[in-house]
Design brief:
Layout: H1 9-16, H2 20-37, H3 50-71, H4 79-102, H5 113-116, H6 119-135, H7 145-189
Length: about 190
């Protein structure tokens, strides 16, 4: 897209890598790729452990829900942009949720797990604020310091962080329900 607009490729890449959507889809791809390489829990890659699978799942659900609630009306993608839009904002989040429901692990689930997953959105927010200071450009209107100021941007970011944590706890609850249903089905069939 950068070449079509007459800007250098590096400028397009810098812009592209400013989006939580893009970085989170890369994160999910890395986690799922790691999972596909080693199937057995004792030999799993550290990228395919419960904390990273949970963190990436919560983050991509924030992408899907946030996009649908706040950003989908802000543009009208056509052709391949529409396909990319659907894949990045709807298909990958749905796939990640399904993956979470069937993901098997031997790690102990801790109730505070979603709080430990907050490193990812926090690092992103710091990154995007520093990037914005350097480039005088922010990827999303709800954290655009130039328009909203720092106070409002931080308040909005905290709102997203709260949503992230709530989704994390919902994921743990959903997993517990699925695990209970599996156990009941297994015991009922025995």
């Amino acid at each position: 897209m950068a070449l079509v607009n007459g800007t250098p490729v590096i400028s397009g890449l810098v812009s592209y890598l400013g989006y939580f959507t893009v970085l989170t889809n890369i994160f999910v791809a890395l986690v799922c790729t790691a999972g596909s390489l080693r199937q057995h829990p004792p030999r799993r890659s550290s990228l395919y452990r419960l904390p990273l699978v949970g963190c990436s799942t919560a983050a991509i659900l924030v992408v899907g829900i946030g996009y649908h609630a706040l950003l989908r009306e802000s543009w009208n993608p056509q052709g391949l942009q529409w396909v990319a839009d659907v894949v990045l904002h709807y298909a990958v989040p749905a796939g990640a949720l399904l993956h979470w429901l069937v993901y098997r692990h031997d790690e102990r689930v801790v109730w505070w797990g979603p709080l430990s997953w907050c490193w990812y959105p926090l690092v992103y927010f710091i990154y995007v604020m520093l990037r914005g200071e350097i480039l005088s450009s922010y990827p999303y209107p709800f954290i655009d310091v130039l328009t909203l100021g720092y106070a409002r941007s931080v308040i909005n970011a905290v709102g997203f962080l709260v949503g992230f944590v709530v989704l994390g706890f919902a994921l743990l609850g959903l997993r517990a329900l699925v695990k209970g249903a599996r156990r009941a089905a297994y015991e009922g069939g025995a």
